Amino acid sequence: GIILGRLPEARHNRALSRTMAYESAADEMTFVFGPMIVGLLAALVSPAAPVVGAAVLTLIFVTSFALHRSVREVVPSGGDRSSVAPVRELFHGSLLTVLVGALGIGLLFGAVLTSLTSFMTDAGHGESAGLVYGVMGIGSAVFALAAGLFPERFKLWARWLIFATLMVAGAAILPFVTGLGGMLAALGLLGIGLGPTLVTVFSLVSARSPRGRAATAMTVATTGIVVGQSASSALVGQIGERLGTTPALLAPVLAAVVVLGAAVVNWRRGDSHVLGSE
């Protein structure tokens, strides 16, 4: 709202891209360091410490966000629904395609972490899975921030295709890895593709949100990632326990293919009229 309301139209694309890059990088860092901090607090203080910490963080920062001055940027509609697009526009094919991509990213998060845990447990270092996972998360965060520096001529549809292809390439290596070095290399490549893809997907969701429905569309995209991660973690965990690590390591490949498939559909649709996607 601030970007679209205050900045000249010529700066919208770049400002949105950089904002989404920052947001995606912040997400990546919490995905990586959040579980590590929880583990340390539980081990060094008590199992209750992470829950108490989460309550304190919620009380302070969620309340601060609710009272932040940016609330003035939103003008209440006063009951006038004419300025808000109908709900059915949320089901437009161009937006649904991007939301499927967000779901695929969530599936990838869960599949990678769970299959990696199985791999590290087989190697006798299950407790180090979070640290190894950080290679993907930190690399993803760095390249997510770098995505904010991409020139505007590097269109969103092209970014999605290229970096989703890197994701598939990194994931495809995982089932063939036999040692820690190979795993680190595969996760590094996966992270390079993941960060910019995440930024691109959220940029497209923002750009394609129906009038007055941006908050809903962004919430659905974020929820898709969370639901995908949870479902994938549960399913891949069962695969790892019952069938072994190698079948579990195939799951990230399938998740990455979902993201790439959505990118191909997005490209084939040719929604060039949408902000930044031409």
Overall description:
- By secondary structure, the protein is mostly helical.
- 74% of the residues lie in helices and 0% in strands.
- The longest helix has 33 residues, at 12-44.
- The two termini are 22 Å apart.
How would you concisely characterize the structure shown here?
With 278 residues, this protein is mainly alpha-helical.
* β-strand number: 0
> Beta fraction of the residues?
under 5%
Rg, Å, rounded: 20 Å
Q: Structural class from helices and strands?
A: mainly alpha
Name the average pLDDT.
Answer: 86
Largest sheet composition: none
The number of distinct helices, counting runs of at least 4 residues, comes to: 9
Order of helices and strands: HHHHHHHHH
The parts where pLDDT drops under 50 for at least 5 residues are 272-278
Helical proportion?
over 70%
The coarse overall form would be globular
Ends distance: 22 Å
Offer a few descriptive terms.
278 residues; mainly alpha; 9 helices
Reconstruct the topology from this structure.
Layout: H1 2-6, H2 12-44, H3 49-66, H4 93-122, H5 129-147, H6 156-173, H7 180-208, H8 214-243, H9 245-269
Helix pairs in contact: 2-5, 2-7, 4-5, 4-7, 4-8, 4-9, 5-7, 6-7, 6-9, 7-8, 8-9
